Amino acid sequence: MNKSIIAAFALASTLLLTTSCDVLNAGQSNTANTLSALNTGGGMLTNLLSNVLSGGSVTERDLVGNWTYDGVKCAFESQNLLAQAGGVAAASAVEAKVDEQLKNYGIRKGVTRFNFKADKTFTATLGGRNMSGTYSLDTQSKTLHLQFVGGLLNLQPQVVRNGNGIALLFESDKLLGILGTASSLLGKMGNNNLSLVSSLLGNYQGMRIGLKLSK
User: Which of 37-41, 53-57, 84-88, 168-172 has the lowest mean pLDDT?
Assistant: First the structure.
């Protein structure tokens, strides 16, 4: 079994599952019940997708350099959906569960790394394995295109500013197929992980997930 293939798909799993929970596309003002749910387990979430996307674009100059995985980030498409999921406390629980599952794929804070170079190439370190490829950045749509060497994987996360770092965000349902492929390569362990992750994500509607990176 080609370890680089497994690592590539495991990386896709990372990109699917990593981040800290925010709210996306806040809509109209919500009811008192919704606001109460949002405040459960911690203060009101302030990083709305509308705010994140309205911020400055990540440029190629910003992207170049060494980046380290810094945690899981899940985002809901509306305040109502977050409230239905159980509020901030539930979002934090999702993060903790996802982080635990990522360890099975060799994804750990401070260990998983990316290096983006000015010549449009990149390297990634995952579970002690090194991968490489090319990238392009569409600053208008804020989309990062990652093409791994050998055509093993082609990912197109949305890249946004996240404090002093960046975050790569995916629609979770669109990457479950990649998780399935990764699981088939990883065998029984992968199948068990996929079952747990699919069950977890299936409980939440309108959730987008990805990973936070910091320099």
Answer: 37-41
Q: Residue type for 55, please?
A: G
**Alpha carbon distance, N-terminus to C-terminus of the chain:** 33
CA angle 118, 121, 122 (to 5 degrees): 105
Task: Tell me if 139 sits within 8 A of 145, measured CB to CB.
Answer: no
What are residue 65's DSSP bridge partners?
116
- The DSSP letter of residue 134 is E
Residue 196: C-alpha distances to residues 92, 134, 168, 190, 202 (Å): 17, 32, 22, 10, 10
Predicted model pTM: 0.74
The runs of H, that is alpha helices, within the chain are: 3-17, 32-38, 49-54, 60-63, 79-85, 87-102, 176-186, 188-202
- Predicted local distance difference test score (pLDDT) of residue 46: 36
